[in-house]
Specification:
Layout (H helix, E strand, L loop, with lengths): L1 H12 L15 E5 L9 H16 L3 E11 L3 H22 L6 E8 L11 E8 L1 H4 L3
Parallel strand pairs: 2-3
Antiparallel strand pairs: 1-4, 2-4
Helix pairs in contact: 2-3
Length: 138
Amino acid sequence: MNLFRNALGVVVSFGAIAFANACSLAGLTHTVTFPKSSAAIPASEVRGLANWYAELRDGMGVEYAIVVAVAAKDSETSESVARDRMGNVSSLLKTLAGGDSIPVKTSLEQLVKPPLDLNAYEEVIVLTQPRCAKTHSC
């Protein structure tokens, strides 16, 4: 949950909250969990991300996505794994978008103190801006 709050802060800083009054954040985020110290996306996570993205793409549409990961500050290994994870998730999102190319932004949050939930290091959060927010048709 702490990582979600950080991710939401990233969304606000990118100016992504431009929703019509009827829109909500429900369903616009997805967490991808990785095995410890690995940047490979497990098959179950690929399936989950693909299903979530397809539902959004075919429903409200997706204007763009933001991929957020955390790393321990001053740890090259932690930062490298986090960047590889963001790259792998970004590549998968671009593949899932098919011919409908969407911008994918990334943000690496470097934490000075460990998060309360140490599993946050093993997660990448994907946030989306629905296309309907642009047309105010949400």
